[in-house]
Design goal:
It is an enzyme of class 1 (oxidoreductase). Residues 11-322 form the Enoyl reductase (ER) domain. It comes from Roseateles paludis. The chain is an alpha/beta fold and 324 residues long. It folds into 2 domains: 2-120 and 293-323, Quinone Oxidoreductase, Chain A, domain 1, CATH 3.90.180; 123-263, Rossmann fold (3-Layer(aba) Sandwich), CATH 3.40.50.720. Helices cover 31% and strands 24% of the residues. It has 11 helices and 15 strands. Strand 8, helix 4 (151-162) and strand 9 form a beta-alpha-beta unit. Helix 3 (121-134) crosses helix 4 (151-162) and helix 3 (121-134) crosses helix 10. The longest helix has 16 residues, at 272-287.
């Protein structure tokens, strides 16, 4: 097999594409021939040594992938060679082959292509858990999505619209805002050129958004929170801007608002039955055409450094996918 190996998590220069021995197959695991793998922002942070997950080098990065089962480990039920699966496995996805715990593998219906499936679990599960579980989003409420052009942002847009919410999508360029409007956003804000607070005041009649979905952090967090509606819910999803904001705690008090952490990966571990129900609902939504991953580009697996460079430059709408 071939894989992208990270010898030192110091950045993209630490990656090398190399032939390596196939990993052993422990009990309870599947060996999967990878057909497609998508990039998530934590993948970039992991190879830079900036993420909370710090694997011991050398390691193969790649959180999310889809492919065909090659071999089934002892004790595994419900899978056989040839089955089509997707998984959010934590590591190993940027390769031609991976071993993953069977409990993490999602069986794919025949109509779910590998490229779309590789871009589905992380972003849609995160956004579903955030909006419908943690925020208890209701029909008619207004949702502000920061960083709306990214993978989790476009997934959140679809999930919020399917739930009957009004969506304000905020992004960093006019081109991204135009694309988000085409994807169904009710309004857009280009925060590179517009004052976020003034735009929100105008778009909500001064009441503010009921739910704020924030995978960005940094200097957008405080002005967004200052604009939140009474009893609003601020969803802390991630820190793609690189800075963890420090919010004045009088803001939740004055607005009667909630600051809500979103950690889908930990939720999946601690509440597996609830997570299985979540994934089943997402598959149903995909089958009904509500949830369709937005794929920016599809590149060969050997072009991972170029894909990472585009991700780091925020030059992506939706997800980047690598194929083998």
């Amino acid at each position: 097999m071939h894989a992208w190996i990270c010898d030192h998590p110091l950045g993209l220069d630490a990656l090398r594409w190399a032939e390596c021995p196939a990993p052993a197959l422990p009990a309870g695991h599947l060996r999967v021939r990878i057909r497609a793998a998508s990039l998530n922002f934590p993948d970039l942070l992991i190879v830079q040594g900036k993420y909370q997950l710090k694997p011991t080098p050398p390691f193969v990065p790649g959180l999310e992938f889809a492919g065909e089962v090659l071999q089934v480990g002892d004790g595994v039920k419900g899978f056989k060679p040839g089955d089509r699966v997707a998984a959010f496995g934590g590591l190993g996805g940027f390769a031609t082959e991976v071993v993953v715990p069977a409990v993490l593998a999602l069986p794919l219906p025949p109509e779910f292509g590998f490229e779309a499936a590789s871009a589905f679990i992380c972003t849609y599960a995160t956004s579903h858990h955030a909006l419908l579980d943690r925020a208890a989003l209701q029909p008619g409420e207004t949702v502000l999505i920061l960083g709306a052009a990214g993978g989790v942002g476009t997934a959140a847009l679809q999930i919020a619209k399917a739930a009957g919410a009004r969506v304000i999508a905020a992004a960093s360029s006019a081109a991204k805002c135009e694309r988000l409007a085409a994807l169904g956003a009710d309004a857009t804000i280009n925060y590179s050129h517009e004052d976020l607070r003034e735009a929100l005041k105008r778009l909500t009649g001064g009441t503010g958004p009921d739910v704020i979905y924030d995978p960005v952090g940094g200097d957008l967090a405080e002005p967004a929170f200052r604009s939140i509606a009474w009893r609003g819910r601020y969803l802390v999803v991630g820190f793609a801007q690189g800075q963890i904001p420090a919010l004045p705690l009088n803001l939740p008090l004055l607005k009667g608002a909630s600051l809500v952490g979103v950690f889908w990966g930990e939720f999946a571990k601690r509440e597996p039955a609830a997570n299985r129900a979540l994934l089943a609902e997402l598959l149903s939504g995909h089958a009904q055409g509500q949830y369709r991953p937005i794929i920016d580009s599809v590149l060969p697996m050997t072009e991972l450094p170029a894909a990472f460079a585009r991700l780091a430059a925020r030059d992506v709408v939706g997800k980047l996918v690598l194929t083998t």
